[in-house]
Amino acid sequence: MEFDFTPEQIQLRKSVREFAEQEIRPNVLHWDENSLFPLGAIKHAGQLGFLGAIFPEDLGGAGLGYIEYAIIIEELARVDPSVGLIVAAHNSLCTNHIFIAGSDEQRRRYIPKLATGEWIGSWSLTESESGSDAAGMRTKAVKDGSCWVINGSKVFTTNAGYADVCVAMAVTDRAASHHGVSAFILENGVPGFRFGKKENKLGMRASATGEVVFTDCRVPESQLLGKPGEGFVDALRILDGGRISIAALAVGTAQGAYEAALKYSLQRQQFGRPISEFQSIQNKLADMATEIDAARLLTYRAGWMKDQGRRVTKESAMAKLFSSEVAVRATNEALQIHGGYGFLKDYPVEKFYRDVKLCTIGEGTSEIQRLVIARQLLKTQ
Ligand SMILES: Cc1cc2nc3c(=O)[nH]c(=O)nc-3n(C[C@H](O)[C@H](O)[C@H](O)COP(=O)(O)OP(=O)(O)OC[C@H]3O[C@@H](n4cnc5c(N)ncnc54)[C@H](O)[C@@H]3O)c2cc1C
Asked: With 217 labelled, which of 183, 206, 327, 342 sits at a CA distance of 20 to 30 A?
């Protein structure tokens, strides 16, 4: 076993941290309060390779693995979880779906532009009537000559409104159930495809979340992604990798909140001494640090396994479940350590506390992660 990062991974963490401190930190509150999508910073992140972390260099990617990808998301989330979420949805959902299921031609057309941030990607599975039960979607695509005609709508699409490319799932054969959903690549500007309502959210406010609407959207066969009918099965494989990034997002958010709380506890004086000298504050810090470390280990274990080409359905669900729940607890305790000041926007913990909740919901709720884990456990018996 090897628990140390390589010198290259340490250097990567340093570079992402510098980027986050210099280009994100000064804007966090402004972006959050005004729900501003940080397009300039995202484009720069693309130039630095953060938007193409897990894709090969010959397709314009950084040629890194999931450990490095987790480092990137963790470091971005440590400063602004919204930015981590934008990068995660772009990398491991949209671009990775094209990488895993796309033809050579599709890979060559889309991945270089997505991996460098020239284009931004989004991925639409969820609908208003089908969230956890994603296969119950109603959006459908019907073959008409050499084209597909898509009708329906999606909700909760991250990067909606800013994405140049959207990978969307639609029913192509209702009778075939899980093998009757296909994936399509939509380019912004295609007639019949538009982004709808932008949601006004509790947290992750700099990341845009919105509706995607299809009205007689006619696309050529070349836009079908993967085998017809296998879009949902492919989506589950995509989520196996994506959940590692949500776990990293949770770890980074928890780390940011923990660091803020540690610093505050050393500065804040009550009863004539820093509050860090009170045992109940020390207990909180000790629990936070221990749980965050455990969450980080589960996350990097899942990333390591993915890099070995192993199946990570159980391990990525475990990492996502544990890290997101740890992060909710850690941000809560970080706010508590700040007392009344934690309730104010003058301190960063208030935002971590709001942002973190997404981690127990996006890419499958905690309840669904338990279901996925239990299924894997029972399968082995
Ligand atoms: C900020 C944000 C960004 C998102 N980004 C994207 C995106 O880019 N693309 C995309 O496709 N989706 C995205 N989502 C959607 C997200 O994946 C769904 O919200 C999530 O899967 C839950 O679906 P739901 O909201 O419809 O909740 P529901 O499925 O209605 O769940 C409601 C409650 O019931 C529980 N529940 C449901 N079924 C079961 C069951 N079988 N057993 C036990 N409990 C159950 C759930 O755990 C939850 O507590 C995003 C969501 C948010 C909030």
From this structure: 206
Cα(126) to ligand 1 centroid in Å equals: 8
Q: Is the CA virtual torsion 127, 133, 134, 140 positive or negative?
A: negative
Place of tokens 């994100």: 24
Hey, whose CA ends up nearest to atom 7 of ligand 1? 157
Cβ burial 195-210 (10 Å sphere, 16+ → b, else e): beeebebebbbbbbbb
Q: Is the pLDDT of residue 57 over 90?
A: yes
Q: Residue 270 pLDDT more than 90?
A: yes
Confirm if 258 and 288 have CB atoms less than 8 A apart.
Answer: yes
Residue 173 φ/ψ, nearest 5 degrees: -155, 95
Pocket test for ligand 1, best of 82, 85, 124, 132 (most atoms within 8 A of CB): 132
Helices 81-88 & 39-47 angle (0-180, nearest 10):
60
Positions annotated as catalytic residues are: 363
Please state whether beta strands 269-270 and 193-198 pair in parallel, antiparallel, or not at all (unpaired). unpaired
Task: Give yes or no for a contact between 226 and 102, defined as CB atoms under 8 angstroms apart.
Answer: yes
Has residue 381 got a pLDDT over 90?
Answer: no
Whether the predicted pLDDT of 150 surpasses 90: yes
pLDDT digits (tens, 9 = 90+) for 85-103: 999 999 999 999 999 999 9
Q: Among 80, 216, 93, 101, which residue's Cα sits nearest to residue 157?
A: 93
CA of 204, closest atom in ligand 1:
1
Chain-centroid distance, C-alpha 242: 6
Q: Which atom of ligand 1 is nearest to the CA of 154?
A: 11
Amino acid at 270: Q
Token pair recorded at residue 334 = 């970080």
Give the per-residue SS3 of 45-61. HHHCCHHHCCCCHHHCC
Ligand 1 environment, Cβ below 6 A: 89, 123-126, 131-132, 156-158, 204, 209, 358, 361-365, 367-368, 371
